[in-house]
Amino acid sequence: MGPISTLDQSSLEQFQTELIKARFRSVDDEFQRVWVGPVPDGFGTITDATQMRLEFQDGWPFRPPKVFVPGIELEHVNPEGEVCLWRPDDPSLQWTTFEGLNNRIREWCSAAEGGFRPEDAALDAHLYFERGQATRTLATFDLGTLSPSGFSDRRDGALHGLRKHSGLIEVTGGPGPSESVPGRWYYRATIPVAPHDIETFKNKLGRSQLRDFDELCESVESRPVGSERLALLIWNADLKENALPLLLRREEEGVVAQPLIAAPTDIRTLSLRSGPDFPTLRTKRVALFGAGAIGSHVALLLSECGLGHLIIIDCDLLRPGNVVRHMADRRLIGYPKADIVKILVQASAPWTSVESKGACPWTLDDLSSLTKDIHLVVDATGYWSFAQHVSAYFRQSNVPLVSAALYRGGAVARIRRQVLETDAVICERVENPAYPIIPPDDQGGFTLEIGCSSPVHNASPAAVAAAAALTAQVAIDALTERFRYGDEVLDVFSVLESPPFDKLGRIEFGQ
Amino acid sequence: METLPRQFGDALSRVEDHRQDRAQKAHQEVRSVLETSQQLKDWGIDTVLIGSYARHTSIHPGKDVDVFSKLASLDASASPNEVFDAFVRVLTEEYGSRARPQNRSVKIAFGSEDEDAFSVDAVPAVKMGSRWAIPNRDPSNWGGGGGWVETDPEKLTELTSRMNQQPTLNGQGMYVPTVKLMRQTRNYHLADLKPGGLYCELLTYWAFDAGIENDGSFAQVLAEVLESISHRLDAASDDPLMDPVLNRPFEPRPTLTELQAAATKFHELAQMAQTALAQERCPAAALWRRILGKNSRGWCFTLPEGCDEEGRQVAPITAISSRGSREAGSFGADKYP
Predict the structure, then answer these.
(1) B307 contacts on A by Cβ (under 8 Å)
(2) Which of left, alpha, beta for A78 (phi over 0: left; psi -120 to 50: alpha)?
(3) How far is B281 from chain A (nearest CA, A)?
(4) N or C: more exposed end of chain B, with fewer CB within 10 A?
């Protein structure tokens, strides 16, 4: 340990002076990083300890000091006695005064005695288990498939784990192939405090579960050094299940339990980062024309936000030059773009059913069949003629449409909507003075590439990603029927010569 | 003039010796042990805490606690050997290996580890006129007439208390805090070199005795005391520092070399202090920081808000840190340990 890295030595010294006044002493004479002192009154009701340790972290004052108090067996206290007083990103800076520290200790103890809020549940059980701070191995599992009939108190069952290239262990219910790591899961309805070592792990088990676990341990112990077994403890913790996977390994000195980082793969967990429209979007169907740079991003974004069904239509193959702006990487060069995007969507958004169509349809029959029962069509082809064509056709057939394209080398992104009765028809906006024309580039603004007669517009990957994100926002706005965007939204990323494109930022019409 | 009152207050907190209460308790314990001896009781045993703990001038990390064991029924005609042996016997019976006889005192270990550990140094004393006498530091002299050496530590405690009455700052005497700051300054810059802490304390005593201007700041007082001490050290080889209790040159006297080295250092510190008085807040603080130095708790003189260790002004992060933020939590990595 070296000096405490801080941009505010003054407040650090002020706080340390307060520690001295409170009878704390530095046990690290060189750098004053670790201090020991009397346990504040606030902790009095939950520990008999008289001394606590306080360890400063680099990044003062924006990171709180670590607080260690021996003898507390509660949630949010790890085996080393570290009391997790603040979330890692807590913005309060409450710890910069001794009074603030004491106030937080009182709040924490009050919560500990009365029960922590559900949102404060310690779901990172591995951190509170011996050696858990250092663990870097994930154990993935889907509780739904682990026990298809569900869980009940004191039940247990077989599982197995397969080691993957990244080191993670993929845990599945039932016995597995010979190369897998066998193991058991144990379910308890309620566990107030997560286990912090093998003994407390055992204490959490029911009688028959304990026998089963002892057998599991014996089966490792009787095998050669390096043999492994898995044990997964699952319990209910307020809002959701909590779990602690352990890898039991035969070492020279006996069986060692290494906690693993629980990494559930169920839809509920995966969708936690999908945004608030996930439930609505799961009922929606979208047809996407164009699976190129913008289209591939839009497909991923809509799916990851929760889209229920996606049809991807594109007749092109992925070229080496496409990779720079496309969601796909070079390993997929040569495959149809529609199929590639389908695979990418399936890998990221398992809730989205995807169809890929290797076609570039212009016939009304094809367009009609591809958009049957569709809630929204997204045109990301970037072709003016196709946008005009589908706009005219979908006006007749009442199919909602959003069309997106980048212009002038990525200087301007334009997203046009043709969904509401009041939305101007896209193909008629050319003549509509309410929708200014993006001025053409007299210099040409494109290059050519061998093997491809279409001009290559040099829009940057950043402009593509931004345009795709805006397209997804406009599409979701329409699918959720909020309609807070106008029927034409433009983002100017690089100023053009004439208004209204001579300023950076957003321009909206038809609001 | 930038007087930085908060930082001087912090400095006093940072040099504070927290073992004062424990010293009192240890003294009471040793006293009760000594009083179990009928012989010592017959000799009129009565103990008193002396030294820097009695004068409240001890600083972190603290030194031995001195317990002066007065035997009022004995005088200098008593045999130092007999008195000391009786003294050692009582304390070693009680404390076993924790009590270790020294040349003329018994050192008793208290506490167990690091900062908790300290020693009580108990010394026997007999009457010598209106004062007291303790055994000669060299036991080989105990047989002749030089077996006892005159002393009056309680008088120094009394003089300290009297000197601390004026000047005052916010109703508190400035002398004792100034002694602590001077002892810290000496510890940091001279460490194990002589002259030691008591000599430094007496230098401060005579500086106060000569009179100092009090503008209500430790900055001004400390600068004056440093100036006074540096000149006194210059003269000390020809005009020895007087013990204000015994009215004779302080013993043991530092050597000429030691005095010259100390004078050089204190001239440098006095010059820095004068410069600090004329500086803006940040550069002034940087100078005082260098003057008072560090102890095991870190730098004694804390940095003011918006100042760095080089004395430069920096962006006032403290203003943000004092209130934190109530804005919505940002989106980011789940964990950035």
Answers:
(1) 10
(2) beta
(3) 13
(4) C
Chain B contact set for A25 (CB, 8 A): 18, 114-115, 296-297
pTM confidence score? 0.82
Total count of domains within chain A: 3
DSSP A234-294: EEEETTEEEEEEEEEEEETTEEEEEE-EEEE-SHHHHGGGS-TTHHHHTT-EEEEE--SHH
Q: Residues of A with CB below 8 A from B332's CB? A: 89
Give the pLDDT score at A92. 87
- Which pair of tokens denotes residue B73? 């029924």
Residue that terminates a domain, selected from A57, A90, A120: A120
Q: Which domain holds residue A225?
A: 126-265
Q: How far is CA B271 from CA B191, B221, B268, in A?
A: 20, 14, 5
The pLDDT tens digits of the residues spanning B136-187 come to: 999 988 887 789 999 999 999 999 999 999 999 999 999 999 999 999 999 9
Specify if A2 maps to a domain. no
Across the interface, do A20 and B302 touch by the CB < 8 Å criterion?
Answer: no
Shared-domain flag, residues A310 and A455: yes
For residues A250 and A131, membership in a common domain is answered with yes
Is it the case that residue B333 has pLDDT exceeding 60? Answer: no
Q: Are A338 and A357 in contact (CB under 8 A)?
A: yes
CA distances to A41, B260, B268, B270 from B264, rounded to whole Å, are: 49, 6, 6, 10
Q: Within this chain, do residues A233 and A114 fall inside the same structural domain, yes or no? A: no
The yes-or-no verdict on residue B321 having pLDDT over 70 is no
CA distance, residue B102 to nearest chain A CA (Å): 30
Residue at A4 is within a domain: no
B127 φ, ψ (degrees, to nearest 5):
-70, 140
The sign of the torsion formed by the CA atoms of A66, A71, A73, A79 equals: positive
Spatial contact of B337 and A90, defined as CB atoms under 8 Å apart: no
Of residues A476, A469, A461, A458, the one with CA closest to residue A491 = A469
How far apart are alpha carbons A383 and A248 in whole angstroms? 59
Name the nearest CA neighbour of A187 among A159, A227, A228. A159
Contact (CB<8Å) A10/B324: no
pLDDT over 70, % of chain B: 92
Say whether both A112 and A130 belong to one domain. no
Cα distance between residue B233 and residue B306, in whole Å = 37
In terms of Cα–Cα distance, which of A144, A115, A113 is closest to A243?
A: A144
DSSP reduced 3-state for A506: strand
For residues A77 and A134, give the distance between their C-alpha atoms in angstroms, rounded to a whole number: 16
- Separation CA A28–CA B298 (nearest Å): 10
pLDDT (tens digit per residue) in A278-322: 999 999 999 999 999 999 999 999 999 999 999 999 999 999 999
Give the model confidence (pLDDT) of A219-264 as tens digits: 999 999 999 999 999 998 766 789 999 999 999 999 999 999 999 9
Residues A74 and A163 in one domain: no
Q: What is the CATH number of the domain that holds A76?
A: 3.10.110
3-state secondary structure A195-207: CCCHHHHHHCCCH
Instruction: Looking at the structure, tell me whether residues A297 and A236 fall in a common domain.
Output: no
Tell me, yes or no, whether A181 and A215 share the same domain.
yes
Distance from CA of A33 to the nearest CA of B (A): 10
* β-strand pairing of A181-190 with A228-237: parallel
Instruction: Point out the domain boundary residue: A120, A155, A177.
Output: A120
The residues near A347 (Cβ < 8 Å, ≥ 6 apart) are: none
User: Which of the residues B16, B281, B302, B309 would you substitute to probe the A interface, choosing the one with the greatest number of A C-beta atoms within 10 Å?
Assistant: B302
Q: Mark whether A219 and A341 lie in a shared domain.
A: no
Q: Identify the residue whose tokens are 């009090």.
A: B214
Query: What CATH number does residue A241 fall under?
Result: 3.40.140
- Name the nearest CA neighbour of A16 among B303, B62, B218: B303
Q: Do B321 and A11 touch (CB under 8 A)?
A: yes
